[in-house]
Amino acid sequence: AQSVTQLDSHVSVSEGTPVLLRCNYSSSYSPSLFWYVQHPNKGLQLLLKYTSAATLVKGINGFEAEFKKSETSFHLTKPSAHMSDAAEYFCVVSELGGYNKLIFGAGTRLAVHP
Amino acid sequence: DTEVTQTPKHLVMGMTNKKSLKCEQHMGHRAMYWYKQKAKKPPELMFVYSYEKLSINESVPSRFSPECPNSSLLNLHLHALQPEDSALYLCASSQGEGYEQYFGPGTRLTVT
């Protein structure tokens, strides 16, 4: 069965410094992986997706993620944090078997300090 | 247009009330989803509709009743809810297996 582990529940960075949000997945096949962001009291917005094309995936707002099969990881990075990046981030895998059920990680709360 | 809309944005209801949540998408997606999200938790899947038919019910109590009137609309009828049902209710749609889901802004429900 598929699963997702987000290794940090909270990450705090200073504005202008790099962001690293870590995600490991477990899957017996080549998965579809996503990162979503959720600002307070808002819905989820898709940041980027991996669907077995290029292993380095570029998303919106300067975020990117690298799929590493050997490490079963899909870490999210951004070179320079902005105050508006403060939010909850979810790493998600799409479950095989129809109906596109999503399996969510527990989430990482990103705080950005001036 | 990748927008999913949800109404109302906020809803306060008593335990004896009947209310409905509405979701709409015009992306031609044939799969639509209802999620429940409690504070500081990831969304939990409630229902999946595929081609306007209920495909998955994640053992949701019968006080929640979904309906898919057509391929663009999804409703969630609420009756005799409990205070612990207070949460953010999210709707999403998707092209299908392996594709991303697009989420609406959610309805913040408070049961008094």
Q: How would you concisely characterize the structure shown here?
A:
Chain A is an all-beta fold and 114 residues long. Chain A is 0% helix and 53% strand. Chain B has no helices and 11 strands.
Please describe what this structure looks like:
- The complex is a heterodimer of chains A (114) and B (112).
- With 114 residues, chain A is an all-beta fold.
- Chain A contains no helices and 12 strands.
- In chain A, the strands form 3 sheets. In chain A, strands 2, 5, 6, 10, 11 and 12 form a 6-stranded mixed sheet that branches. Chain A has a 4-stranded antiparallel sheet with strand order 3-9-8-7, with no helix packed on it. In chain A, strands 1-4 form a two-stranded antiparallel sheet.
- With 112 residues, chain B is mostly beta strands.
- Chain B is built from no helices and 11 strands.
- Chain B has strands at residues 4-7, 10-13, 18-25, 31-37, 44-50, 53-57, 64-70, 73-79, 87-94, 101-103, 107-111.
- Chain B starts with a strand and ends with a strand.
- Chains A and B meet through strand 6 of A and strand 5, strand 9 and strand 10 of B.
Largest sheet of chain A: 6 strands, mixed
Helix content, binned percent of chain A: under 10%
Number of helices of chain B: 0
Structural class of the helices, strands and pairings of chain A?
Answer: mainly beta
**Terminal residue distance of chain B:** 37 Å
Number of DSSP-assigned strands of chain B: 11
Q: What is the oligomeric state here?
A: heterodimer
- Sheet with most strands of chain B: 7 strands, mixed
Q: Helices and strands of chain A, in N-to-C order?
A: EEEEEEEEEEEE
What's the pLDDT, averaged over the residues of chain A? Answer: 93
Q: How many strand elements of chain A? A: 12
What is the count of DSSP helices of chain A, taking H or I runs of 4+ residues? 0
Overall form of chain A: globular
